[in-house]
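Database export, one record per block. Field names are fixed; values are copied verbatim from the stored entry.
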Amino acid sequence: MRLDEEAFARGMWPEGLVAALATLAVAWPLTELLRDNSWLWPAVLMVGVVALSGAVLRTLDVPPSVVALLQLLLGLAGLMLTYLRETLWRGLLPTGETLDQMGVLLREAGTVLQTYAAPAPVTDGVSFLLVAVLTLTAVSVDSMGVTGRAPASAGIPLAAGFLVSVSNTGQAMEPWYFAAVAVLWLVMLAQQGHRVLAGWSSADRREARGDDIGVKVPTYRGLGQALGALALVAAVLGAAALPHLPPTFFGDGLARNPDARTAGGGGDVTFTETMDPAQDLRNQSRTPVLTYRTSATRLEPLRVTATERWEDGRWVAPQRTQGGLTQVGEPVPPPPGLGEDVPVQPQQLSVTGNSLEPPHLATSTPLVTLDLPEGAAYRFDPEDRTVVLQTPVESYETTYLAVGGGTGSLPDGVGAAPADPAQFDPEVLELDPVSLPAVEQLTAEVVGGETNTLETAVLIQDHLRSSAYTYSLTLAPEAQDDASDPIGGFLATRQGYCVQFATAMVMMARSEGIPSRMAVGFLPGDPQPDGTRAVVASDAHTWPELWIEGMGWTRFEPTPGVRSEAPPAYARAQEGGDTAPTTTTVTQTPTPTEEQAPAPAPQPDETWQDRLADLLPLIGRVLLGLLLLALLLALVPLAGRRHREGALAEASTPAEQVEAHWTWLTRSLRDLSVPDPPERSPRAMGRHYRSVTTLNRSGEASLDRLSAVLERARYGRPGTVQAGQVEPLGDDVRRIVEQVREGTPWNVRANAALLPRSGMDGIRSMLGRRGRPGRRG
C-alpha cells in the first residue's frame, strides 16, 4: 500500500462521512416540530466542519485525544462566529459579553420551548440551541465511533438525541425517522466489522496458505456476517411483536399533542398549548385539575391564558419574552381600561389542590391579587393579563373583581367610543382573510347600524347563542382545523363546540373594529360534599375577550347554554338572546368573610433563567478550567508520541535509525498491552510478537523485514545497513501497530489513545532530566 493510500485509510474518511450523516438523521424529526428550517443549514455546516476536521487530523496522524479536543474547539468557534460574532474581541476571542449573549439566547429558547405547541417558531435562541446540541452530538459520535473505533458506543449519543426529537412530536413516530438512524448506525458497525473481520482467518493469513499446515483453515468472515444479519432480523421482528405505548415527552410545553395519553387512560391537560380543548371534551376526561373554594355566589370561569394569534386556520399559543413580564413577585397591576365609575365587587378564590403544571395558573378575572405559598414565585404578563408561574404550587389564593357588582348595571357611555387601533397590537384586529366575506356579511346582518361596542358585542353573542346554532363536538369536514376555511365552514353549518363559537365572535367583533382575543381555561366545575368545587379536564372551555371602552378587556359567552355558563350580567340583552339561560350558583350557603387587606406581595424569588444568568460567570470559569484540564490531558498523548519516536531524531547512522525504529515499535505495542519480547535475538523477538498478536500477510512481512534489518544492524559489519534499507521501516512500524490496534479491545484502544503508557514514561523522563544537576566544568 502506498503512503498516500495509508494516510487516506488512517483518516477514515468514509467512516467520518457516515457518522456525520447519522448525526443529521437524528435531527430529522425536528423538522416536524418547527415552523421553518432556517436552523438546518447552520447545523449541516457545523456537522460538516466536525467531520472534515476529524478526517484531516486523523490523516495527519494526530493523537486521538487531540483530534477530539480540536474538533470541540472548532465546533465552539463555529458557533460563536455564526451566532455571537458581534460580541467577540476583534471577531476572534470570546468576551464576557459573549457569555451574557449566550445566556440571552438560551433563555429565549427556553421560553419558546415552554410556551409554544408544535410547530414552534425558530428564533435565534432556538436555532443556537439546536445547532449547539447537534455540534456536540457530532463531536461525540465522531470521537467515539470513528476516532475511537467504537461505533457501538456511538449509538448512545445518537439514541439520546433521537429520543428527544421523536418524543416531542407528540404522535406516532414515522418509520423512516428510525430507519434512517438505524441504517446509518448499522453501516458504522459494518465498517468496523469489516476492519475486524479482515484480521480473521482468510486467504491473506499464512495458516490458510498452507505454510504451517496442509489443510486450509475455513474462513469465519461469512459466518460473522450471517450472524449479524440474523441478529438484525431478530431485533426487527422482536420489536414488532412487543406492545407499543403512546409517546411521552421530555420537555414541557413543546409539542404537547392532545391525542397523547398515558397507558392508564389518563393524560395531561394540554389545551393550554394547543388552544383547543377538543380531546378532553371528547373523552370526558376526569383528570383532576383544581379543587377550590370561593366567596362568590355567581361563579366565573377560571382563566389560564389568552392569545390573539390566529394562523393557518387555528389559534396559536402566545410567545412570551422575559422582557415583557413583570419582575418576580411584583404585585399584579390594575386591570387596564376599567373605569372608576364601573361597579365592581371583590371576590376571593382559594385553591386547595392544583394539578396544572407551570407556567400555567387558573383563576377568575380580572385578577387583583395573587398569594402563593412561601418559596413559590410568579411573573405576570400585563399584555394579556396572564400569570406565568415560575415554580409548581399545590395551593394559592386570589382576589378578582366581579364587574357590574353582581347586578350588571353599568354607567352610561360604556362602549360608546370606538377603540383607537394605534393603542393595540395589530394582531387583536387581524381578520382571517379566507373567511372575511362570510364574517363581514353575517356581522352586517346581526349588528345592523349599532355603533356602541358593548351593544354590538351583545348582539353578536346572542346571535351565536340562539337556537339557530347547535353545540356539538362533531364538526362538519368544512369546519375542521385542517379545512381551507374552518370559520366560514362553522358559520355555514352552524354546528361546533366552544372553540368555534368563540372564534366566530372574535372575528365578527374584529370586523367591527373591536379588539378581540381568545381566552382558554375551565368552567367552574362541580360542587363537592365538603363545600369545595372540583374542576376536571373535561371542564375545559374557551371564550372571547373584547376591549370595551370604559371596561377594558371584557369576557363574553357566545357558546350555547348546554355547554357553558350564562353570559355575564353586563352582557345580557334586555330582550331576546337566550330564552332559558343556564346559570351556575354555589349550592352551599356562602360564608361571609371579613374584608381583608390585600395580602402582601410574595418576596421576589429568582427564576431559573435569573439563576442561570447569575451562574454564567461561574459556568465560564468551570468551562475554562475544564478546557485547561483537557489541554493538560492532551499533553500525555503528545508526550507519548515524542517518547516513542524521540530516538529517531537523535539517531545519526543507519544502524542507530534501525534501533530507533525497533524502539518505536516496542513502545507503541506496549501502549496496546502487548508484552515486551525477551532480550534475545531479533528473530526471536519477531517470533514473540507474531505469537502474541494477530497480523495478516502484509503485517507479518513488515515484522519479518524489520527483524531482518535489525539483525544485520546489530551483528553485521559496519556499513552493512544502508540508508535505502531504513526508509521503508517507518511504514512497516505503522502497519504493524495499526493491525494490532484493530484486533485490540476498545477499552485498551481508548486507554492507548488518551493515557498511553509511553506518555507517562515520556513525562517522567523529561522531569527526570530536568531534575538532574548540571555537570560542573
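Remark 1: The radius of gyration is 37 Å.
Remark 2: The longest strand covers residues 344-354.
End of record.
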